[in-house]
Amino acid sequence: QVQLVESGGGLVQAGGSLRLSCAASGRTFSTYTVGWFRQAPGKEREFVAAIKWSGSSTYYADSMKGRFTISRNNAKNTVYLQIDSLKPEDTAVYYCAAELLGDSSYAAGAYDYWGQGTQVTVSS
Questions:
Q1: Closest CA to 49 of 63, 31, 39, 61
Q2: Are 84 and 67 in contact (CB under 8 A)?
Q3: The dihedral sign for the CA sequence 96, 102, 105, 109
Q4: Of 24, 62, 71, 100, which residue is most buried, by most CB within 10 angstroms?
Q5: Counting beta carbons within 10 angstroms of the beta carbon of residue 1, is it exposed (0 to 12), middle (13 to 18) or buried (19 or more)?
Q6: Is-contact 80 19, C-beta < 8 A?
Q7: CB within 8 A of 17, min separation 6: which ones?
Q8: CA distance 56 to 13
Q9: Pairing status of strand 32-39 against strand 46-51
Q10: Which of 109, 92, 93, 111 is nearest to 101 (CA)?
Q11: CA angle 113, 100, 38 (to 5 degrees)
Q12: DSSP-assigned letters across all residues of the chain
């Protein structure tokens, strides 16, 4: 099993940047593919990005390409999501999720473990 804890959210002005972190417990973190999702009020949870367990491949939702960068440091059991040029529509709770040896699916149902989420609020 793996436990995930997100951090790094907050209130930021439009145009700013944030780096979200997803810290994982467990010695086998390097075998987990990790995805980031977000959910805005009144909307469904949507896929943002994923990074394969090996770190060799990254995947982004089409609408997220260019401003979002996912990376991982397996030595620190942490996955990061860098968000640049933040927009008010980026306001949401951001969740990380993990799937053992996953294929970096965009589907939330593919992931076995979820964090509690971190709130990102972007003011205009």
A1: 61
A2: yes
A3: negative
A4: 24
A5: exposed
A6: yes
A7: 82, 83, 84, 85, 86
A8: 33
A9: antiparallel
A10: 111
A11: 40
A12: ---EEEE--EEEETT--EEEEEEE-STTGGGEEEEEEEE-TTS--EEEEEE-TTSS-EEE-GGGTTTEEEEEEGGGTEEEEEE-S--GGG-EEEEEEEEET----S-GGG--EE---EEEEEE-
Token reading at 48: 């943002």
What does the pLDDT profile of the chain (124 residues) look like in tens digits?
899 999 999 999 999 999 999 999 977 888 999 999 999 999 999 999 999 988 789 999 999 889 999 999 999 999 999 999 999 999 999 999 999 988 878 999 999 999 999 999 999 9
In the structure encoding, which two tokens stand for residue 10, read together? 């907050």
Neighbours of 96 (CB within 10 A): 30
